[in-house]
Amino acid sequence: MKKLFWVLLILDLVVVNGGMAFFLYKSQITNNKSQTNSDTQIPIIQNQAVDTCGAECRKYIEDKVNSLAVSLMVTPAPAPTGETVIINKTAPRQKTRTVSYVTIPGNGSSTANDWQDLTGTDFYFDKADYPGLVSVYFEANMKLFNGNGMAYVRLFDVTHGIGVQGSETNTNSQTDSLLSSGQMTFWAGKNLIRVQAKTLTADTTIYNYGRLKITIEN
Q: What 3-state DSSP class applies to 125?
């Protein structure tokens, strides 16, 4: 019985394998005929990706990706705390202008046709004594006595030997009048200043008194 069993088993295997071989052979012949009779068909080659990266390879790639993600991570801005921040802004301090007067000593008169010193009118002036100095004007109380010409007065910088720029004033009035010069320009330093007068006719220039009008801003 055992021999018969083995004989039947062997015959079964031969029949099965033979059938499979014949089936594969017929399929191959059919494919060859199909490829031979078709002149216009282009064989399609399919590329199949083969995963050659094992577990260690995939782990290495994942580690690199995670490392890159951490290095590119941006720290988010802190969430608002809800606290109100008060910024105190100090308004700029407004500067204040102050006008003061400095009396010039002395008085005098002149009938000269050129500038003549008036004795007793000397004084010193230094711009550095007035921080924030804006302007200085010469105000003179004067008149032209007994005539129809023109009376003139000015300030003279004795230290530098020049007339103070902008200080000249004049009148043809025979009534005492307080007149103002233009804005004056003084040289730096402590300078000796005096009053000078003149007239263009034979009449007399009368200088009663004078003062400096000084404006500062601080």
A: strand
Q: Give Cβ neighbours of residue 168 (< 8 Å, ≥ 6 apart).
A: 152, 153, 154, 181, 182
CA–CA distance from 36 to each of 30, 33, 39, 41, 44 (Å)?
10, 5, 7, 10, 15
How far apart are the C-alpha atoms of 103 and 185, rounded to whole Å?
18
CB distance 184 to 167 below 8 Å: yes
CB 191 within 8 A of CB 124: yes
If you ran DSSP here, which 8-state letter would residue 21 be given?
H
The model carries a pTM of: 0.58
pLDDT digits (tens, 9 = 90+) for 31-52: 555 554 444 454 544 545 555 6
Domains of the chain are: 97-217 (2.60.120.1340)
The bridge status of strand 151-157 relative to strand 169-171 is: antiparallel
Pair 195, 210: CB distance under 8 Å: yes
DSSP annotation of 131 reads: T
Strands of 63-203 (E only): list them. Answer: 97-104, 108-110, 116-117, 123-125, 133-145, 151-157, 162-163, 169-171, 177-180, 191-199
Residue with tokens 């014949």: 22
Residues 6+ apart with CB under 8 A from 185: 164, 165, 166
Residue 141, number of CB atoms within 10 A of its CB: 16
